[in-house]
Prior knowledge:
The complex is a heterotrimer.
Chain A: H1 7-15, E1 21-32, E2 35-46, E3 50-54, H2 61-68, E4 76-81, E5 84-85, H3 91-94, E6 99-102, H4 114-122, H5 130-139, H6 141-144, H7 156-169, E7 174-178, H8 186-203, E8 206-211, H9 214-220, E9 223-228, E10 231-237, H10 238-243, H11 245-252
Parallel strand pairs in A: 3-8, 3-9, 6-7, 7-8
Antiparallel strand pairs in A: 1-2, 1-4, 4-5, 9-10
Helix pairs in contact in A: 1-8, 4-7, 5-7
Chain B: H1 2-10, H2 19-27, H3 33-37, H4 46-66, H5 70-95, H6 103-118, H7 126-148, H8 153-166, H9 168-173, H10 175-178, E1 184-185, H11 193-202, H12 209-233, H13 235-245, H14 247-252, H15 257-283, E2 285-286, H16 293-306, H17 311-334, H18 339-343, H19 345-360, H20 364-381, H21 386-393
Antiparallel strand pairs in B: 1-2
Chain C: H1 2-32, H2 39-55, H3 60-83, H4 91-113, E1 118-119, E2 130-131, E3 134-135, H5 140-162, H6 164-174, H7 176-181, H8 186-209, E4 213-214, H9 220-232, H10 238-258, H11 266-280
Antiparallel strand pairs in C: 1-4, 2-3
Amino acid sequence: MPDTHGSTAMSAAGGTATTTRLLEVEGLTSTYGPVRALDGVSLSAEAGRITAVLGANGAGKTTLLRTISGLVRPVAGRVVLDGEDITKAPVESMVAKGMAHVPEGRGVISELTVDENLRVGALFRGKVDRSEFDRVYDLFPRIAERRNNAAHTLSGGERQMLVIGRALLAKPRVLLLDEPSLGLAPRIVAQIFGLLRQLVDSEGLSVLLVEQNARSALSVADVGVVLNLGRVVVTDSARTLMADEDLRHAYLGF
Amino acid sequence: MSDLQSPASTGQAGKATDEPPVKATAGGDAPSGPAATGRTFLPQSTLLRHLLVLAVCAVLAVLALELSSPYQNSQLATLSYYAIAAGGLTVLTGMNGQISLGHGALMAAGAYTTALFLDAEEPLPLPVILLAAVVVATAIGALVGVAAARLHGPYLAGATLALAVGLPGLAIYFHDILGGEQGMRVRAPQAPESFESFIDAVSGNSASSTKWLAYVGAICLLITYFFLANLVRSRIGRTWRAVRDQEVAAELAGINLGAWRVLAFVVSAAAAGLAGGVLAIVVRLAAPSGFTIVLSLALLTAIVIGGLGSLFGALLGSALLVFLPPFVTNLGGDLGLDQTEAAQLAPFVYGVVLIVVMIFVPAGLVGTIRLRWMTRKAKRAMARAGADDTGSRR
Amino acid sequence: MDYFVNVTLTGLTQGMIYAAFALALVLIWRSTRIVNFAQGSMAAATTFIALALIQAGASYWVALIVALASGFVLGAIVERVIIRPVEGGPELNAVIVTLGLFVAIQAGIAIIFGSSFQSFPTPFGVRGFEVGDTTIPLTPTSLYIIGSVLIVMALLVALFRFTRVGLAMRASAFSQEVARLLGVKVGGMLTLGWGLAAVVGSLSGLLIAGGTFVWPAYMDALIVFGFVAAIIGGLDSPVGAIVGGLILGLALSYVSGYAPRGSALVNISALVILIVVLLVRPGGLFSSTTARRA
């Protein structure tokens, strides 16, 4: 593992008050035709932290992630990754810059096998030692058993494990996750979120987690950002948001 | 009908181009080009309005034919059969979102039918023969249409391409009757005596056989466009557009998609059959080499240039098919190409035009102009008219 | 009996060519959801380049290599310049663009190389091998055709199965967005895919030309045959394309060999087969899908 994101250093940073703003989003505005899906969104994601972006359907959560990773080009605003302005960088270059995006609907390439899916995730790094794949399989024994099966035979939970594992093979510093809980049984969601927490704590990863399932997301996140109609309504610690009953009723639906 | 369609213009209407929905709503009054400009003092009834336009166009046609040279007469005759076929194809591709590369083959069906009937000892009257050409092409079109109704996009293009390549082969198989590679010479139909006196009364020009054929073409063209324009504005035309733009919604509304697609194919096949009949008598020959895939692609070029879905555009595009080849062939000659090489410049230009139009102005000439006009109108009408803009960008 | 074997072998040989052409169509369809109707014209263009070289005194093999290489370049340029702007747009637009390319290239060939019939050489004989004192209906040329198509297919399989570029190409073909997010340069992969497909298409053009005549439109029928073969195989499946090509080759050979004046019926038979397949098994013989909708 390169020294820039040595796990001990990062988790130490994440634990103390001096946090590193790995990803910063400033005044991001994106439109679909006449509709403003994002309207001046600013937020940041810190190393060793899980930042949950919450809000109802259509609040702009998915557009936010797609704009950050360049799939949607913003009409205004900036995206800064570790000091580098990546607003106009090509989508293909993001992962090499240390940002992995797991899209909505999981992004499994269902025609490829499980192992091939993982290999695609590591392609941009050139030769990758087999042991790194073994580490992912150790992390997710369930997909290890199915490594030579076509990915479309996997269950929803297994797919989620596959895409997270695949993203990890890219050795990202920032992980963008779009609705990982969608369509999964609560038990599996808890399992995946638990694992995510572990990874963040041990590797100093920064996770930007988009979720409609606000309750689960806040239970694992450090910081919560609530979006409504493309604008940030509130940014606060997850605990504070959990405690704010009015806000929960108004925007989070629980 | 407009409120039914507007959501499709920005949405998933991934079919034809995204413009036709917008255009189709505008297109209501546009198929009869002149009508669009002065419709304030035209009758409210569509049929009456179209009849009036028909009369005006008939006068214009006579003027055009009498004020031009014999060579130009024959060019206009050529224009008429291209335009008839392109009009039919516009209904299919523009209105209903289906593509066909088989219209050249359907024209062949009409042309061979005409040739066979004219070959008889005592040929039937010309209108009857042309009607027979229409019937034969329609029957083939119905057969193809049934298969085509279940296909879309590349599948349909490939299937009709197979038709275009395959059908002329029948002429070789039945070479005893259809003349094989050489094809059939077509006997020129005799002009009735009334035609002579008509021309004499109108202009005093000589009523040559070329002129007679040009008139036959013009009459067929006017009838076809009158019929198609009314069809497009009718409930049938609206249903076609619904089938094209809102496949799922139309199906949920109880519209039998397949049947409507077959109908579109049948109507356009009928036009192709008539076009083939006119071609046969104008060219005096029905041979496989006259109905290659290049013919089908030329027709496609005509409707793409004109803007998919506009009859006026189809006419304009057909005019280009007639007047462009001599122009570029001369150009090629000036550039030092020999005659056979220069003759290939026209199809070369068709191909380039197809590519360029699709990449830069997918709405075609008429479509783009109309879209601009529509957008301006829409912007004036309501403040939030962004939808049209997004449509034009794709 | 001899006649039957002869007709069957002819069918298999032709079928291999159709298979190669269908494979080229399938490669492009899988990656860009576009049927490249210009494939035949593009192959014809490279065949004429080869012919020009041979007429200038080059050996068949040099001409073959140059033609295949120019096929690659042509395919890549076409994707970059002409297809890229309509990729992902309305499917009718892409269809019309490839059709435009079809006529433009065909006319371009006629302008540059002339539109007359010209004979194209074959590197091997067209007389059957002799075993003892009987001539078996297997010719060196048909062996060459079958062998070269098999070699190309094996190379493609190796590329897609065992190389990193192949994996990246497959990922791009199946899921462009995911591949881009994973850092795969999808644009480059699509260009490469079109280039490779054009090489395979060119090969089939060169093979079918061998020992017979070429003219600018000589590939028109092969576009149809290749398309029909690809449809039989389901348009999505490389293996299906190959099987489809062989089935079609045999079927057309039997029609041509047994029906009275059958050779005039070959094209129309392809049409009939196509329509039957589309109506009975719209997803092709090798797929489980039944409907074909946008």
